[in-house]
Amino acid sequence: MLKGKKKLIILTSICVVAVAAAAAIAVYVTRKNTEPVPEPIAEATPEPVPTPEVTPVPTKDPNAGKVKSALTGEYISKKRAKQRPFAVIINNIEYANQRQEGTSQIDVLYEALAEGGITRMLGVFQGTEKIKRLGSVRSARHYFVSFASEWNAIFCHFGQTSYAISKIEELGVNNLSGLSAIGVVVYKRDYSVKAPHNVYTSGEQMKQGAKKLGYSTKFNEEKMAKHFDFQEEDTDLSSGEETSYVNLPFSDYSTCYLKYDKKAKEYKKYEYKSKHKDHKNDKQLSFKNVIIQLVKEKNIDRNGYQHLYLHKRKGTGYYITNGSRMKIEWKKNEEKGTMCYYDTDGNVLCINPGKTYIAAYPTSRKELLSFQEKKDKKTKKK
Questions:
Q1: Cα separations (Å) of 323 from 8, 238, 263, 267, 357?
Q2: C-beta of residue 151 within 8 angstroms of C-beta of residue 224
Q3: Whole-prediction pTM
């Protein structure tokens, strides 16, 4: 009987536990089915990352710290721009022409007749440090003294005529004469070259000579004549005649001509039917600007010395650049220290930055001046 009760109690307990478990399961299932299903959480859109601004690196100005040359219109160092110009007489007979040195360093180059149909040149430059050897140097003529005075340059020569001495004194030109006591400081002979064509100088020698004589070597632009203005950048002539060739027959002995190099946009110089070279570096002389200054000239004595009518004179000529030419006018007064080139409207001539070649060409030979290259006609044999 006791055992039966025990069994009943155990069975009853098992039933209660089973019923409770079933109820719990039912409640859990009901809750699961009735609880709202949470909405999926949307993924957050990432905020755009701002692109950092790139600060442009300024292009370095290649001319920073430089100034424009009063001789060429090109940018040069401030140190060089402060130096007073020198003007040197250059020997140009054929023998000497083939042995010229330093001429490619000249900023403004003049060429004019001397006696006997030969020409001499006057090289004007600023910056003695660039002239390592220059020559050969020859004797002065009075019109070259006048040209040098236009630039307030220290005039360098080895010998002179009486006319040149008078002009040096008249215009008060500082000069370094090879025949004076200062000559041994400024000039030196090269005995591998025949005399009298063997005198050379250098920038350092000229500078030392000027200092010993007490000449100012500082540039004073106010004392220099205003020859022309400069374009801000390379500019073609707005109107002009095509000119790729310039023939300048100074005499039967000395005929110079220039050919336009389209690639370099410069005029290459020739003399004695050959390239006119600086034999120091084997470089042909070339110029951005060519000025033909037509000048009346005459023989003044039995030695054949020339006289160019420059003082209180005016005249005509041509300006040539970038393959074109235009007519110009010029006016000079030695007493006032003025010399200027003008366009035909009377405005100061504006030229391109670069080196300039000036031919003081006789009006008596104007008809021989030409801008057309003559081609040799070769006839075919039949």
A1: 132, 12, 11, 9, 15
A2: yes
A3: 0.84
